[in-house]
Amino acid sequence: MAFSNDAGGELFIGIKDNPHEVVGLSEDDLTSIEEQISNIIYTKCYPTIIPDITFLSEGDKHLIRVTIYRGNTPPYYVKDLGKLHGTFIRVGSTNRQADENIIGELERRKRNLSFDSEIVLDKPLSALKYDSFKQIYKDKTNEDLDLQALKKLELIKDVEGVLYPTQALILFSDDNLRNSLFHFAKIECARFKGTKSETFIDQKTINTDISMQAEEAYNFVLRHINKGATVEGVYTISRWEYPLKAIREAIRNAVVHRDYSLTGKDIKVAIYDDMIEITSPGLLPPSIDYSAMESRQSDAKNKIIAPVFKRLGIIDQWGNGLKMIADELKEYPDIEFKWRETGLSFQVQFIKKEFIKQQELQNKSLYAEILLILTNKTLSRKELSVELGQKQVSGQLNKIITKLIDDKLIEHTIPNNINHPSQKFQITKRGNTFLKIIDQEKK
């Protein structure tokens, strides 16, 4: 069911799960197992799922591969459980029961509709406030956002002679209805101290209409990153520490392609000492592969919002966004780009490789310093912090002590009771060997 509701997938029968090991099936049983699999899928799943079942050989062992294709009539669910409780989706490498919002999205996919195209009957167009969006549209396109334009962009629809807005127009409006229906359709920006989300340096909530959100979030990023100078030949060239075009495109993608049907989730732009992280509600469309960013892929989740953004010049031609990110990253070999699906959100990270190396070097240096201190004596945690010139035991010191113990470079003097009041630490033989290697590297 989960494969059919998503991008499809494969099941292999005859492989042990933990650890992954080919155990094989009896050749005499292959046909009967194939029939059993077909019967289970047919009797348990609704709508009907037709698998592609093939036999494979790995050496002298036999396997069965069950290929499930992406279905055209979702949601697929367990008959006995019903649609509400028996619909499942893939999240990363796991299955998750779908809630009503996700089931609704699957229903819309079956009808080739998008959430932003649905009509909102709470307020007719005549009572809706969207003056700011009208002005933005005029400024960007040099055209009036009149009834003809609204209809052409499918931002309004006629219901028995009365014009009503779609979800998309509500999101573009500055009406109170937007805040009541989409109080989560905002961007939370934060600059954190260090590499953890424990201490804020600055934060901002952007809850304007969605046409302005991406640029405001981008400006927040600009305020918190540096512009330095690099020397190329005889010229000094100034450049930002991060690829700005790529970051702007990632923020725009987060706004354009987020899943606005997911309640209680907002876009997050987080800036740390070592990276910029952008998280958008909703999973990646099955047809988009971030590992092939230069192939000009395009799949608009929000079929009304995306063309409007294109009309406003906020996004480029279809399929150019990922290629733009990939092209600029080539000019920033010191930045690592990562992406992943986390929960029901999609996340991208721009990571400073040099920062990670510096942190590793600093940790290595501090490891060596602690080991040198413990070479000829045993010390408690507090005594060790004093030797390092610290006023009190820091969280960083606790983490390093734990790491040194895990790596067997130091050990407890009272190993049977690590919380003993007289507990101290001493260097191990492995720790002494580590110091010798460090000393040789210096030479």
Automatic annotation (TrEMBL):
Pfam family, one: HATPase_c_4
Domain Schlafen AlbA-2 positions: 2-98
InterPro entries (alphabetical): RecG_C_sf (IPR038475), Schlafen_AlbA_2_dom (IPR007421), Schlafen_AlbA_2_dom_sf (IPR038461)
Name of the protein described by the UniProt record: Putative HTH transcriptional regulator
Annotated source species: Dysgonomonas alginatilytica
